Amino acid sequence: MTKMRFRAARLTTRRALLAASAMALVAPLAACGGSGTAEGDGKTLRLWHYEQQDGALSKAWDAAIAEFEKTHPDVKVVFERKTFEQVQQNAGMILNSDKAPDVMEYNKGNATTGLLAKQGLLTDLTAVAKERGWDKKISDSASVTARYDAKGEMGGDKWYGIPNYGEFVLTYYNDDLFKKHNVAQPTDLKSFEAALAKFKAAGITPLANAGNDHPAGHWLYLLALAEANDAWVDDYQLYKGKVDFHGPEWTYAVNTYKDWLDKGYFDKKDVGLKGNDMTEQFVSQKRPVMVGGNWWFGSLTTDITDFKWSIGPFPGSEKTLGSGGNHWVIPSKAKNKKLAEDFIDITMSEKIQKLIGEEGNVPLAAGPDSVTNPRSRELIKAFSTYQEGSGLAFYPDWPVAGYYDTWLAATQNLMNGGKPDVVLDELAAPYEKYAASRR
């Protein structure tokens, strides 16, 4: 399945999880941001993004550029495709210079957009978002990661980015294996565990996983969300209250994770695997159940040709990992901000939003009924359900810069037989240290 390896190389949520550690390289480079007084010629739009060339979003942005060129015939678009790492590692330095692009794709989160906004390197788009109606097209839950406060923490009242698409974690089922082994597709956590037990009794390890990448942490956080409410998510992600890492939510998560490891629902040998290895477990029909992001959806649609599969929410939880996607930002030192706004407006248009959906991603400003692709409609409908029900609970590493590495080490420790209480202490230490520094 080498084709999947290449298609999945630029994972959206992998980006989100890598952001905290990568931004450590940016902070020393970014001094005070400019006030955005640079003068442009009004004839050039410099645009950066880091989407892979054959991906759904790259196709959408290509179409948006073509539309921009049609509506702005006197403007030259200078597009540069960057790597995610190039942008992450050098954003602060570049945005604080006269080489800043007019508009660029950038990662969401406190350690990325929030940090640069706090340093004055990004344009406040609050008034523009209201004027152009972007704030009405994007729900409150999807816009949390586009809005920041004076501390650079998400959920504030000022817009510094405009997301065009959504992302979330869902459950993928091999319908043929469920049918072959006479296993009913689960509707709640009890029936989910019953299905896992039945597969294991048939000699099949039921759950795909990857301990050396984001999936292991996704599983742990998802189990915590099964016991969580809105207030708990706000306390953990937005620091609205104290978080007890030995409270019922986290305790349930680590104990259930360990129990599933002990029962063989997870394979402990998966501790060294990467995300692409996990998807290959599902595609090769070695594992009948995979929990993963919608960023896998397009590749699975193309690469699975020999069995029927379906998607659904994780049983037993009204919440999942997810948010609005990465977004367009306008650097403070951008020379042609009005042109940048015009381009963003095109990406929010019905035409481009519909294209995002047809290509297998999740548009924020187009509903499932506007998309003809039946599988894509199913995906968009699932996202809409979470979005409308305050079901998007972000990602576990977001609250603290560098937290991804902590999560990776902690979940690997758990998979290697570490004690649940020790694992929770590992997760608590950097979080509580940062929380104390905010007081």
TrEMBL record:
Keyword presence, Lipid metabolism: no
Pfam families per record: SBP_bac_1
Keyword Nucleotide-binding found: no
Signal peptide (from-to): 1-31
Domain of life: Bacteria
Keywords of this entry: Signal
Name the UniProt record assigns to this protein: Extracellular solute-binding protein
Species assigned in the record: Streptomyces xantholiticus
